[in-house]
Amino acid sequence: MPHSLLPITEASPSSAVEMDEPAVAESAQQPVDDDIAMTDAAAIENVPQTEETVDKQDGEEEKEKEKKEISDVKLEDLFTGDSDEDDEFPNAPAKKEAANSPSEPSSPSEFDFDPSELTAYDPELLRSFYQRLFPWRYLFQWLNHSPTPTLDFEHREFVFTLPNEAWMRYQSYRSSDLLRKDVLRLMPTRIDIGPVYSTNPRERKALQNVAGFRPLSKELCFDIDLTDYDDIRTCCDKANICNKCWQFMTMAVKVITAVLGDDFGFKHIMWVYSGRRGIHAWVSDKVARNMDDSKRRVIAGYLEVITGGAQSGKRVNLRRPLHPHLVRSLDILKGHFQEDVLEAQDPWRSPDRAEKLLQLLPDIALRDALRKKWDSSPGRSSSSKWADIDAVAKTSAGKNFDAKALLEAKQDIVLEYTYPRLDINVSKKLNHLLKSPFVIHPGTGRVCVPIDTRKFEEFDPLSVPTLQGLIREIDAWVEPEVKAEKPVQDWEKTSLKPYIDYFRSHVNTLMKDERGGGVKVKRERDDEGDGMELW
Amino acid sequence: MIRQDFNRIDPKRRNVVDHRKKQFADPSYKETQYPHSLSFYAAPPTADITLEEFEQWAIDRLHVLAELEACSFRNKSPAETTLHMKPLLDKYLPLDTNSSSGPVFAQRQKDHYSHFILRLAFCSTKDLRQRFSRVETMLFRLRFNADDTRERNAFISSLNLDWETVSDEEKREYATELMATVASGFGKKIHQSIDDETFCKVDWMRVPDLVESRKVFLRAGKAYVPSKEQQSLVVTEFTARLERALELTARARPSLDEDDRLTPILDHLSKSFVAPDSKYAGDGAIEGAVITARNIDNLAQHFPMCMSHTHRTLRRDGHLKHFGRLQYTLFLKGIGLSLDECLTFWRQGLRRKTEDEFNKEYRYNVRHTYGDVGGDSNRRGGGYSPYSCQKILTEHAPGAGEAHGCPYRHFNMENLAGLLQASGVNDRAVLQGVKEDKDKQKFHLACNRVFEHVHRNELKRAKDDGVMTAAQLETIVHPNEYFKRSFLLKNLGKVPQSQQRDGGGGDVKMEE
């Protein structure tokens, strides 16, 4: 509840924003992509949208027609022979600037335009991304669990963060195409996905009783953020990350995937890079989607090992014998602890940090002996210090020294330094919003790409495709000698391809499971048939 | 009450009676039998009882339930609760085993009827339903544990819960994992017990509490429940069925409203079940206190440890995490800080935020807690009410970097001692007392101990002068109450008498 106390902009499509008057005049100079051919409403999308979203208003119909005529003329003028150059007929390789930077349509040289000079906020780059690269259809299938629209998609809440940072909640769409159009109209800098509601979110106000509008289902989500590791990572802090501390994510993913898969039996787990310093998991199994808050809390509780804040001292306190899931987690994490924590992070090098380690040990005599030893040789590495614990314990073991207690304390320490730290509130609530995959992170310009868990260790967050890079890649793409049978989609020309391929295969197995593989023939036809329109 | 078909005579049997007579004839039901002392209350009662019985039985049961709820609020352990409840149960709702010589039928009948009467009384709102099913579950669990083993097993098998027993091969396959869930830490005994132990395999969603506390082994969505934990299964089933039945009762209830003999009794019953969950009823304003954003630093000396900790954290970091802000805002609202002042306070407090960030991310939340914006019900209800100790203790334990919660509970002893000493509590005896209270999980007592220590001089004076009534010296169970009392005591003599007489602990009651 407290999490949902956010400013709610309840903009309906028609009342959202004011009309930009000069747009009509300018549009005469605009080159247009073939959206113009679709509908009147689409025509307006070609108007350059700089700071404010442009919207269709009542009584503007005539101007629009006018605009369209002008545009039509221009279309012929500017694109003679090139009219198939756009995302839906993506054969034409070169001369992409026209679509990318309509603000300089008359530029004499095509090299005048350099996408990297623009920021991620640049509406034109973002527009091209949404228009040409964003995998609308797979996103639709992923949320819809079927190729034909169902209530899973139609009653799904989308939340847009507009360029002026206003929020638009409770948006819903009947198909991926309508969603795409509205996104192009509003140009949100961020898209969040909410739950599926019992009625269409747009119609919630028309309901007689409030109880008729309630969230029904949503993917089970997890959110891990590297800032939660600040007290144990030494390489970076706050929003910064590097490949060293990214290893914490690798560990987290391994442990959580094992829990979700082996223990709870979930199959459709997708991890998504959040664009800067975290990752999200989406579990799309039907059982998982339909869980209520109490069930989600149970899973969160099952996973939670590190409790309390900085004030609560020892943060891992586990009952013995360890639960099988923790035994397995410990097995997974042991190797990482040695390599990625002790060696890479060296968390106890300085005396005050080493003191923290000492506080976690059970025996006071042992603590004193270790403190003495380390004080005499400053700068001892964490690996040596870790080894010292056992060595010193052996030599200075008193009569009532409890070796078992020490072993358990050491296990707890390993877990405290490696076990995933979840932002647990995301997982507990059915109606928590979470950023959609493939959105651009506004700060870094990186795409929130799904990560193939089988190759998670190879994943490098710092080399994820960025908005600027992708647009450049499309431009640089050269058509191969041998023409492919199918037209090459824009995303296939870029480094986004492996991610979208992975997303597609994930979505396909999901849909197959959802259907029980019963109506296979029809799906194949759907796949072939409406591919063009949906893209 | 709901009529279910299986209680009635076979509906398909040919009706030989003239329907005109039948219309006014007494309906005939199956005699209710009570083979077990425990019950899932599946079938509603059908026999006649007097109005007096109707009311008395319900009141007796209510008495038991209210006391049970109070136990949970006081954080009593299951053992303590059992001990505490025993005399009450014997007095109001005795329930003997089959082997005993007591009036078994009468006892079970009373149990059965009172349960259904209360169902009627507490089905009307979602809140009441939830509370009712929570306390009824507690009662059921208590009785389930107290029941004789043989009869309990008979009861369980009568329920026909579909459990799959784990085969020996499967048991051997997961021997180590399963052992970890049955053993309670004594290494050697385990090996013998694994073969004797029976496990049953159920969907994990049926034993949520066991999964959450990691007491069962999980594999592919199935939980392997050892026999000693099967109680959890039964209890969950009980709750689930009760909740479903309550929904149905709620729907059927309007048709009962025409009876003008029962409705007043039922209304009365549901009203007397108001939360002892210490609602802070006072509007907060204390005469003589200047409560403005500017004065908060000054007033912070009267804050309980939880709030002075959040306050200090805010001053130190210039920031508080979400739940810290929520808890603190509500507290400030409770002491009578107006919305405008509160916004000013946060604007200044979150000093690292720009005006823009503040307006965008924080202003709305503060206004929402005051009921200034938000849904209809939020505005009408004036936002949220300040958190009681109960709520702070049990909900949302603080995580990394968070400063809310109760220091007595959520800090470890060293940090707590440090915090107390920083606040000027250095008395060794008090610290030792706090430690003991904390170990026994009596966090209220620890807080009150500190209160008494800090205000020892004033309290003595107040007692000597007889200014404070007994009610005003009861255990504090609400942070706002702490503030109010602290402020009044420190300003003894400066504040008009009238305020002292009616201010104070009257509205918050909980004896320890």
From TrEMBL, chain A:
Its EC number is 2.7.7.-. It comes from the Eukaryota. The keyword Cell membrane does not apply. Residues 101-110 have a biased composition (Low complexity). Residues 1-116, 516-535 are annotated as: Disordered. GO terms for biological process: DNA replication, synthesis of primer. Residues 53-77, 516-526 have a biased composition (Basic and acidic residues). It holds the Pfam family DNA_primase_S. CDD domains: AE_Prim_S (cd04860). Keywords: DNA replication, DNA-directed RNA polymerase, Metal-binding, Nucleotidyltransferase, Primosome, Transcription, Transferase. Gene3D superfamilies: DNA primase, PRIM domain. GO terms for molecular function: DNA-directed RNA polymerase activity; metal ion binding. InterPro entries: DNA_primase_S (IPR002755), DNA_primase_ssu_euk/arc (IPR014052). GO terms for cellular component: alpha DNA polymerase:primase complex. PANTHER family: DNA PRIMASE SMALL SUBUNIT. Belongs to the eukaryotic-type primase small subunit family. This is DNA primase. It comes from Lasiosphaeria hispida.
From TrEMBL, chain B:
It comes from the Eukaryota. Its cofactor is [4Fe-4S] cluster. Residues 300-483 form the DNA primase large subunit C-terminal domain. GO terms for cellular component: alpha DNA polymerase:primase complex. Gene3D superfamilies: 1.20.930.80. InterPro entries: DNA_primase_C (IPR058560), DNA_primase_lsu_euk (IPR016558), DNA_primase_lsu_euk/arc (IPR007238). Keywords: 4Fe-4S, DNA replication, DNA-binding, Iron, Iron-sulfur, Metal-binding, Primosome. Binds 1 [4Fe-4S] cluster. The keyword DNA-binding applies. This is DNA primase large subunit. It comes from Lasiosphaeria hispida.
